[in-house]
Design goal:
Blueprint: E1 3-8, H1 14-24, E2 27-30, H2 31-38, H3 44-53, H4 66-73, H5 77-105, E3 111-114, H6 118-121, E4 129-134, H7 137-146, H8 152-161, H9 165-170, E5 174-177, H10 182-198
Parallel strand pairs: 1-3, 1-4, 2-3, 4-5
Helix pairs in contact: 1-10, 2-5, 3-5, 7-8
Length: 199
């Protein structure tokens, strides 16, 4: 079973690549989705987050107030590291469970781990292939502001909180240039899929 890590900075087009690979039949394990699941109301992870960052990061309904937590950790590397130390182990365990379940269900499946923080958290895992979605930081900033409606300073804080493009590209086996049209990104993804299936 090929196990592929797909990473990229915020607003890099990584989700476009993941969707295209899923259309071809890849099994996508989404790290962001797992993060949301391990942080559900009442979970041990959410309890640890509240203990470290304060009760104001929990909504009256008992769920995580992502905006409140984000305003605390983005722009503060020490606090972000403390958050990651809580969340990453739980995400690692659940993602590994999903990899194993996918392999048990279909040993020939192509499993893609869609993971924004690969460099920060799991770069040394035994991936068969590391694919990096890449668009310049200036383009990603534009997308966050124009397409997602973020304030420019908040968008820049999110970009700055992640590793540099150079560090991300340094681990890439394959980089997909996502700075063009969606169709161009999809065409590169189609070629990647053909290459994977031919191996």
């Amino acid at each position: 079973m090929p196990l592929i890590a797909l990473t990229g900075g915020i607003a890099s087009g990584k989700s476009t690549i993941a969707r295209r690979l899923a259309e071809h039949g890849a099994i996508i394990v989404d790290a962001d989705q797992i993060v949301r699941e391990v942080q559900t109301a009442g979970s041990p992870v959410l309890q640890q987050i509240a203990a470290v960052f304060g009760g104001d990061v929990i909504t009256p309904e008992g769920s995580l107030d992502r905006a409140s937590l984000g305003s605390k950790v983005f722009g503060d590397p020490e606090l972000l590291a403390r958050l990651n130390a809580i969340v990453h182990p739980a995400v690692r365990a659940e993602s590994q469970r999903r990899f194993e379940a996918a392999q048990a269900a279909d040993p020939s499946a192509v499993v893609v781990y869609d993971v924004p923080l690969l460099v920060e958290a799991r770069v040394d895992d035994p991936w068969d292939l590391i694919v990096v979605a890449h668009a310049p930081a200036s383009e990603r900033l534009r997308r966050l502001v124009e397409l997602r409606g973020m304030e420019e300073h908040a968008a820049q804080d999110r970009i700055d909180a992640q590793v540099s493009d150079d560090r991300r590209l340094a681990i890439a086996d394959i980089a997909i240039d996502t700075s063009g049209t969606i169709e161009e990104t999809q065409a590169q993804t189609d070629a990647l899929w053909e290459w994977i299936r031919a191996r």
